[in-house]
Every structure is written in C-alpha cells, then in structure tokens.
Amino acid sequence: MTEGIVTLHTDRDKSIRRGHPWIFSGAIEKARGAVPGETVTVVDQKGQFLARGYWNPKSQIQVRLLTWQDEAIDDDWWRRALARAAAGRSAGSTATRLVNAENDFIPGLVVDRYQDWLVLQAQTLYIDRQKQRLAALLQELFQPQGIYERSDIDVRGKEGLKAATGTLAGADVPALIEIEEDGCRLLVDVRGGHKTGFYLDQRPNRRLLYDLLATPAAAPRRLLNLFSYTGGFGLQALRAGGVQVVNVDSSGAALALARQALALNAFASAADCTQVEADCFEYLRQCQPRGDRFDVIVCDPPKFAHNAGQVDKAARGYKDLNLNAFKLLQPGGWLLTFSCSGAINRDLFQKIVFGALDDSGRQAQVLRHLGAADDHPTALSFPEGDYLKGLLLRVY
C-alpha cells in the first residue's frame, strides 16, 4: 500500500518541528492517498519531509506522530520504540507502566505490567489495528504469561471505535493479580477495575503518606481517604502504624477488594480501618455536623474535566471537595489533594484550592507539589501529558 501524504498549511509546522505529536484538522491543507488507521508522511508547503505518523479523519487530532525521521514503521522500529519506552522503569514494585502513550513517543498506546501479565490499552484507530502485531512483539520482548486488552475508555469513541476487552495473547489473566508496592500487598482486578486495574501513577504519593506517618505519634491519628478505590493510601497509613483509617468510595466492589487486601497484609492496626460505601461529596457534608475531625485527608477524585468545556463545572467540584476537607482537618493536619484532569493545569488547580482555603477561613502552607510516578513520564514537548497534579498542604 502506498503511504498517504498530509500537507500542512503555510506556517502551521512550528509545533511539529518542535516535537509536538499532534496535528489538528485546522493545520492540514490536504491529505492525498491517506487511509484512516494507516501511516502517513507529513510534509510542509514545499513538500519537504517533516514527520511520519498515522491518520484518522474522524478525530479532531487527525495525525499523531510516531517519528521525525524518514524511516519505516516496521517491526524493527516497533521493537526499538517499545524497548526504549520500557527502559529504566521503576523496580520498586511488581507493577509498573511500560509504555505511556505520547509521553513515550508512541501515541495511543498504554502498556502496564502486573506481575507476569501485561495489559494493553489501544486508544486510537491505528493502535487498535496494530494490537495483534504489538501483542506478538510484547511477548517477544517481555515474555509475559499473557496479554490482556483493556481498551474500554471513552476517548475511543472520538476515534470511531467501540470498547474492546479480552485476551490478546498467552494465558487468560486471573480474576485477581497480587502485586507488592513499598511493603504492601495489593490486589488488582485487571478485567473490571479502574484504568487498567490500578492507579499506578500514585505510587510515590502513597509512599509519601507512609513517610509522613511513619514517626509514631503520642495518640492514634485519623486518616480520611476519599475516593479510596481499593485502599492503597489507607494500606500505607496502616503500615506506618498508629493511624485510624476511613476509606470512602462509591464502589462496593472496590471496597470489597480493599477488605481482601487488608486481610492479606495482616497489619497490627488492621482493626483500625473502616470501609464506607458513600458518595464522597455527601460524606464530607455529613461529617461536620457529626463533629468528625481528621489529622490527615487524602482527596484523589476521578477526572472531572474531560475537555476545556468542562473546566468550570470541574473547578466547582474540586473547590467543594477541598472546602469541606479544610473544615474537617485538625490544626496542623495534612491535606494531600489531587486532580487528574488534564484540562486543568497546575496553576489553575492551585488557585482552585486556594479559593477553597479562603472560603474556609483556614490557613495553609504548601509543603510539596505532587505528580505522577517516574514510570508515567511527561515528554517535554508534550505538556498536555502532565495530567496528575497534587499538593501536600499543612493546614492551620
């Protein structure tokens, strides 16, 4: 098949030359011979080579770039790209992200490792068409017991794709996979859990919470873990000792996994962990009249803003959560608060949290700015990849 040619409008090649991986429809003058879901060569007005990527006219991002070199996207290219992405991943856990899409210069592809299984997520039409080829190469490179697909994210709809899940290669993935993270044993539901089964990106922040709590206090401290999912933050607090944990999540299935993980770890303080199935917004509003107070609050909600049009509504949600969290903290307490909405940048998130603080009548210090784990790198040419942002605050 002859590769299609995408020609850009005059003066619309600046970001491409700087290494940004996306080309929007407005930058394209014409696409000659381009086939949806296949590779294309991108050229400027003079016909000079700029980059090579793949094409989908149904998406607002019509071309996603794979290379800025005039080279073939063949099996050897894929072997190099996958090996480069996986190189240097953290060895501190039996679970890690091996490929982080655009941030590893492979747009549309996510690959996570859980013990001896890999989970592949195909976010775009081209990657979806390549997934069997990629599964074979991943088997060759990493020798997993099996590769499972979790391509059931909303963004696929913008590519004209339906959700797809199931075994791609090797053995079927077990119902639950046990992983180890910084002294804690956790259970991952690869088939039905959030994302690819677990929030790998929060690893350093869970470790930070342990470090904060590891020095024993004179009296038990109380941790409120909002949007707790399967209880990763709570387990690190219990490992530290001397902490009473309240996990709150709207998913009964997630809390059931949290209970199983609690039994698996058998911490001496396991009896000090309570699982509450509730809407976190409502739970916070009920705490203040009851006189509930906490020494530490972790607030790690799901994505509120999927695009720029949802930012205002999302900002109101983040402000509401943080305002009520400020009201419940004991003087000198810690708040670890997060946003994983890519449409809300770090500056805006801090302003939202400050607005909540101002309305609460409290004072706070920023002790640390927080982000994703090292196995979730952000390409310097792709600032949109910096999606997870957080603040560690001391509140008075």
Question: What's this model, at a glance?
Answer:
With 396 residues, this protein is α/β, with parallel strands linked by helices. Helices cover 28% and strands 31% of the residues.
Write up this protein.
With 396 residues, this protein is an alpha/beta fold. The protein has three domains: 4-67, PUA domain (Archaeosine Trna-guanine Transglycosylase, Chain: A, domain 4, Roll), CATH 2.30.130; 75-174, RNA methyltransferase domain (HRMD) like (Transcription Regulator spoIIAA, 2-Layer Sandwich), CATH 3.30.750; 199-395, Rossmann fold, CATH 3.40.50.150. It is built from nine helices and 20 strands. The strands form four sheets. A seven-stranded mixed β-sheet has the order 16-15-14-17-18-20-19, with helices on both faces. A hairpin with an 8-residue loop joins strand 7 and strand 8 (109-114). Helix 8 packs across helix 9 (346-360). The longest helix is centred in the middle third of the chain and has 18 residues, at 125-142. The protein is globular. The N and C termini lie far apart (66 Å).
